Structures are given as C-alpha cells and as structure tokens.
C-alpha cells in the first residue's frame, strides 16, 4: 500500500512524501535502535544512527517501491551506516566512570558488557550479519540481500562470526 | 542436538535479549544531507575555492620567503637587535632520550567536570591506557581536591591538592600512593614538580612558596614579597585591605638544583631565585621591575608560561595575554630580549617549547586561523606567521631556514614527541604530524576526526586526542585504527607533565 502523505514527514523533508513515515517510525524506530545498540555498543551512537537511517530513508524513499518492504530496507540503510562508522573508528562504547554499563533498571549490566566486548572482537560485517540473523530473525537469504552479498558468503560469515563471537564472549565471562 | 544447533540456540539467547531504549519523537528527526546534483555543485565550488586559496597561499608564502631573505617590517617583528640584521636560521633539533618508559607514563589522564548543583562542581580524572581501556579514576567527590591536578616529570605520578591534604596517585591506575597534610589551607596559584621527581613546589595565594619533599613528606614554606596594594586597571582594592597573590608561576632548572618564582600581575613583575638544598629552599637573588635598574616587561594579565633553557641560564616567559616572549638572563636576573609575536586576541596562541630548549612554536588554534610562528630561543629571531601545513606532500614552511594548539585557552599539553623531533598539530581533519624544525608534514593521524588537543604517551608510541566533547581518541603513533572512548561528560583537558 503506497499512499501520499502530506506533512507527515515534514520535520525531516519539508515536502510531500509517498510513504507514511510517522507510522513507519513508530513501527520500526525502537527495533532499529536496539539493533544499532547491539552493533555499536553505544546508546547515543545507536540513537544517532537510527535517526540518520530515517533521514536517509525519507530522502531516498523513491528507491523503496513497497511500504511493506520498509523494514528490511531500513535495516539495510542502518547496517550500511553502522558498518561504515564502525570501520572508520573502532567504537568503544559509552563507559561510565564505574567501568560497568548500566542497564535500564540501573543495575550494572555485566552480561551486556560481555556482549559488547565480544562484538568488538569480530568484524563489523560479521557483527551485522549475526545480529540481523539471531536477534532480528532475518534468514540467511534475507541477510544476503540486505547486505548485498551472496547467500553462501553470508552463511560463511555467520558461521565464522559465531565461532569468534562465542569464543570472545566466553573469555569475557558471559553466561554459558 | 549438534554443536552447530547448540551454538545457534545460544546465539539466539545471547543476542535476542530485548534492548528497550527510549526513542526520540518523530518530530525531532533531522534533515538528511543533500546529495547528487547539490553535492556535485558543492564539490565543484569547494574545489574552486581550494584552488583559489592555494594560489593565494602560494603567493603569500613566496612573499614571506623573499621578505625573510631580506628581513623587513611586517613579516617578523623581533625586537632583539641581532635578529634584525642576521639571516635567520633554525637549528636542527637535538634528539632527546626516551626516559618515560614505565607503563604508568603511557596512560593518558583527562579531567572531566560537571555542575551537579549551582554551588557544586564535580571533577573526575579518568585514566585511559594505550588499548583504550579505562584503567583508573580519581573522583573529586570521594577525595576532594580544589585545584588543577599535576603530573610528575617522569609521568608516573599525579598529584591533587585539597584544602587540607595533598594526595599522590599512581598514574598507572589512579590508586593512592601517599597523602601529605597541607598547611596553610589557602588558595594555590601554581605548582610544579622538580624534574628529578623529589620535590613538589607550590605558590600559595597568601604569598609564599612551599616545597614538599615527596620522599619524606617534610615541607618548607618561604614568604614571597609582593605589592599588597597594586595599581592595575580593572582591579579595585579597598582602602586598608592588602591582597595576596593573584597570579604567579614557578619553574625548576633542568637539574632540579634551582627554583625560580615569577610574581606577576597586580603588581610589578618580580623574579626570585632559590637554591634547592636537601633541607629546602635558600633564596639567592631577587629582582623587581622598576627597582635597582631592572626592567621586566610583565604580562598585563594572568597567564605566563615559563621555561628554563640554555643550560639553566635563561628564563623564557611567554605571555598568553599579549603574545610577548621575554628572555631573562638568570645569573644576573636582567631582561636580555623581548620578542612580540603576532596575536590578535589573548589566549589565541598555544606555546610549544621543544624539549631541547631551542625553539618555541606558537600555534594559533585552527578556530582562529591555523597558523604557526616560531621563536629561535638562542638568536631570539621570530619567524612567521605561516599557514600550518596539513598535507604530507607539502613542503615545510620553514624548510629553507636551516642549513643542512582555543576561544582562548591555555593548552593542557605540549604536543611534541618525547624525542623532540615531531610536533602534532590538531585541526578539523585530524592530526598532522610535523617535522621539527621546518614543520614539513610527515603523516596524518585520526583523519576525519575534529580534534582539540593531543597528548603523546611517555614512550612516544601512542597518541591521544580529545575532541570538543566527550570523546578521547587513542591511536598508534605509527598509524592504525583509532579507538574512541566516550566519557559521560565533556573532557576538559589532559593532565600532562608539560603544559602551555
């Protein structure tokens, strides 16, 4: 379903939009920011990248033919932005002075730290493939299409990334 | 169940944890950058502008070179007679031995602070190692300190000063090594470590210099004479009220055997010389501007950066307020030269003394036009300003001269490699590594990062840089990936052994 929406995306585009961006934002923003947080280990960076994702999506909306396919398309943009950023600088996540990340409940999130540190031990491409596949339910074929790679390459990337991630995760004292 | 299936399940359990985070409202979305045609126009415009700027800069540099061959007014304004008639030459640097090799000297320490209430500011010092790991923190709310932190000459110790206690910390991990009781409990104007690490000297606002023997904990306090009723524009002193020191500084000689205090602003500049003996300070000489035929230029504001060079024979004072450089002959405590650098506003230049004591680079912060000047500390010649080069294929702007760094602010570091052969210039495109003395660009580090200040680890192998916010960027000196450590609040600056 594609319909013209006037003013819905006004803050970002200031023009007539083909897609219901406010609805898309409400449907996918939280999931995207969670994905980007796992990928980068940094809440602020994740929020920034999520906003960038929507800003780019709104700008390039003509590349999306069906609103129903917005989710993988937005994940593709988010993955591209995040891996580009991760390659440019190995991100170390927000580290409060205590040296332990705080979960939303205010308790030090040791498990979250182990995940973050294990993510840093693998390449940005491997990290993206793993999070898309295991956390967000994309199949190998969908991850391949989303990342612009062959399915075989993605399967191999997931297998190698999984081994490296789990080894690093165990070294960090993650849960068995 | 196969191993692969078990790993798959484990991965789903680990990565499938919900990550609930607050999402900003849709109306807060930013506009995406324009692309395609607009970008092409922008790139073309930028290319044309760069080309025009390059042509202009080339012409200026050419003019600068011609004028330097035949010195004339308007290019360099050394007041010293010799430099006006002698053809300028920059000395080759003397490579310094690398002595700060302990693990503690490789850890960068930065200060952060935030207002926790209108009356209270919380300051925390954070240590980050070359791997980008936070290895220590010194929290002002746990161990109160009121003034700046200082780092020892060997880079292995940090010292903070509180109202009643001086605390020494290991720079390796921020653990307390020793506490020293402090008396009197007044304000601290400035402090310095002796190069040999034995003494910590401070100037108190009640007009005294105090030395603390860090080995024994014994202190010795010596009064500093000053004008209690200064006549300084902007400063009103009520009748009958005597004020203490407002701004002063101090410097040890490289052999740690002598200490000089410089009392300036809100009164005539005075220099006092002390011998540092096993039992403390012994005053040996004192000279005051306007007395006994002595004339010292002074700074006209709070901000002198001192450095003793020439084998302990010359005190160089750089004034952050007006850009003047004063040379004082220490055996006679008389002014030997004054040089006036080009500075349009106070605190625009960062003084960078090279470790061999031969040169003083004055870097105008990129926000105000990225230019360099250099003072030859032996001949007193001032060269520049010239645009700071940023591309490795550019020649050094001072290459022909040898024969073979804020809205204002005092830089927290002296960004020179420990061997004194490389100078690090930060800007919006990263860090340009410049060869001393000609400033030929030899490498670029942290390309793409907008950076603020640089600190180089004691062994010279790791470069740390702050941005203008919460980021501390760590990178190998030889090039390689940049690790970014994000602090909860903005970073103030580095705690460095040398500062501007």
What does this structure look like?
The complex is a heterodimer of chains A (176) and B (500). With 176 residues, chain A is mainly α. Chain A contains 8 helices and 1 strand; from the N terminus they run H-H-H-H-E-H-H-H-H. Chain A folds into 2 domains: 1-91, Rna Polymerase Sigma Factor, Chain: A, CATH 1.10.1740; 95-176, Orthogonal Bundle (Arc Repressor Mutant, subunit A), CATH 1.10.10. Chain A is 64% helix and 1% strand. In chain A, helix 7 crosses helix 8. Chain A is globular, with a radius of gyration of 17 Å. Residues 1-15 and 91-108 of chain A have low confidence and may be disordered. With 500 residues, chain B is mostly beta strands. Chain B has a domain at 103-230 and 243-348 and 405-494: YVTN repeat-like/Quinoprotein amine dehydrogenase (Methylamine Dehydrogenase, Chain H), CATH 2.130.10.10. Chain B contains 3 helices and 31 strands. In chain B, the strands form 8 sheets. Chain B has a 4-stranded antiparallel sheet, with no helix packed on it. In chain B, strands 4-5-6-7 form a 4-stranded antiparallel sheet, with no helix packed on it. Chain B has a 4-stranded antiparallel sheet with strand order 8-9-10-11, with no helix packed on it. The chains are: A mainly alpha (176), B mainly beta (500). At the A-B interface, helix 1, helix 2, helix 3, strand 1 and helix 6 of A face helix 1, strand 3 and strand 30 of B.
């Amino acid at each position: 379903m594609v319909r013209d929406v006037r003013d819905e995306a006004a803050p970002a585009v200031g023009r007539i939009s083909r897609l219901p961006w406010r609805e898309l934002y409400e449907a996918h923003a939280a999931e995207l920011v969670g994905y980007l947080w796992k990928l980068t280990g940094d809440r602020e960076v994740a929020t920034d990248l999520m906003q960038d994702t929507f800003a780019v999506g709104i700008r390039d909306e003509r590349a999306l033919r069906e609103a129903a396919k917005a989710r993988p398309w937005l994940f593709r943009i988010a993955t591209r932005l995040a891996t580009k950023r991760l390659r440019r600088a190995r991100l170390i996540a927000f580290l409060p002075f205590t040296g332990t990340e705080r979960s939303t409940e205010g308790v030090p999130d040791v498990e979250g730290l182990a995940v973050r540190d294990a993510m840093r031990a693998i390449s940005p491409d491997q990290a993206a493939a793993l999070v898309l596949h295991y956390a967000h339910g994309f199949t190998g074929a969908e991850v391949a299409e989303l990342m612009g790679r062959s399915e075989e390459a993605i399967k191999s990337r997931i297998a190698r990334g999984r081994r490296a991630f789990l080894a690093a995760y165990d070294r960090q004292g993650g849960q068995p | 169940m196969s191993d692969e299936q078990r790993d798959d399940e484990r991965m789903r359990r680990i990565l499938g944890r919900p990550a609930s985070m607050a999402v900003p409202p849709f109306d807060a979305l930013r506009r995406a950058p324009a692309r395609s045609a607009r970008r092409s126009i922008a790139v073309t415009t930028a290319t044309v502008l760069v080309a025009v700027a390059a042509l202009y800069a080339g012409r200026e540099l050419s003019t600068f070179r011609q004028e330097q061959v035949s010195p004339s007014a308007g290019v360099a304004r050394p007041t010293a007679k010799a430099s006006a008639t002698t053809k300028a030459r920059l000395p080759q640097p003397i490579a310094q031995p690398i002595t700060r090799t302990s693990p503690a000297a490789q850890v960068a320490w930065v200060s952060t602070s935030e207002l926790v209430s209108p009356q209270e500011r919380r300051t925390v010092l954070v240590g980050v190692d070359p791997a980008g790991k936070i290895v220590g923190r010194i929290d002002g709310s746990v161990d109160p300190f009121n003034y700046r932190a200082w780092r020892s000459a060997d880079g292995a110790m940090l010292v903070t000063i509180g109202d009643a206690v001086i605390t020494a910390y290991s720079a390796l991990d921020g653990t307390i090594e020793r506490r020293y009781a402090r008396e009197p409990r007044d304000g601290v104007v400035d402090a310095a470590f002796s190069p040999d690490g034995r003494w910590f000297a401070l100037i108190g606002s009640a007009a005294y210099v105090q030395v603390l023997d860090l080995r024994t904990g014994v202190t010795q306090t010596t009064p500093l004479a000053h004008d209690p009723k200064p006549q300084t524009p902007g400063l009103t002193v009520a009748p009958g009220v005597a004020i203490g020191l407002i701004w002063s500084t101090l410097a040890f000689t490289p052999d740690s055997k002598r200490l000089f205090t410089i009392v300036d602003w809100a009164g005539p500049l005075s220099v006092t010389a002390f011998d540092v003996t096993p039992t403390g300070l012994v005053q040996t000489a004192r000279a005051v501007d306007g007395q006994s035929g002595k004339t010292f230029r002074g700074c006209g504001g709070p901000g002198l950066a001192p450095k003793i060079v020439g084998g302990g024979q010359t005190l160089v004072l750089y004034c952050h307020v007006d850009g003047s450089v004063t040379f004082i002959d220490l055996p006679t405590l008389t002014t030997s030269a004054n040089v006036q650098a080009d500075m349009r506003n106070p605190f625009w230049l960062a003084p960078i003394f090279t470790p061999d004591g031969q040169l003083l680079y004055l870097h105008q912060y990129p926000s105000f036009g990225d230019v360099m000047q250099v003072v030859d500390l032996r001949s007193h010649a001032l060269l520049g300003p010239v645009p700071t080069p940023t591309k490795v294929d550019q020649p050094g702007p001072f290459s022909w001269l040898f024969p073979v760094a804020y809205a204002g602010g005092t830089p927290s570091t002296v960004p020179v490699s420990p061997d004194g052969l490389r100078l690090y210039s930060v800007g919006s495109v990263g860090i340009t590594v410049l060869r001393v003395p000609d400033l030929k660009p030899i490498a670029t580090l942290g390309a793409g990062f907008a950076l603020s200040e640089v600190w180089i680890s004691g062994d010279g192998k790791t470069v740390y840089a702050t941005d203008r916010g919460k980021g501390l960027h760590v990178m190998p000196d030889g090039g390689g990936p940049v690790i970014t450590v994000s602090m909860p609040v903005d970073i103030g600056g580095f705690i460095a052994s040398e500062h501007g």
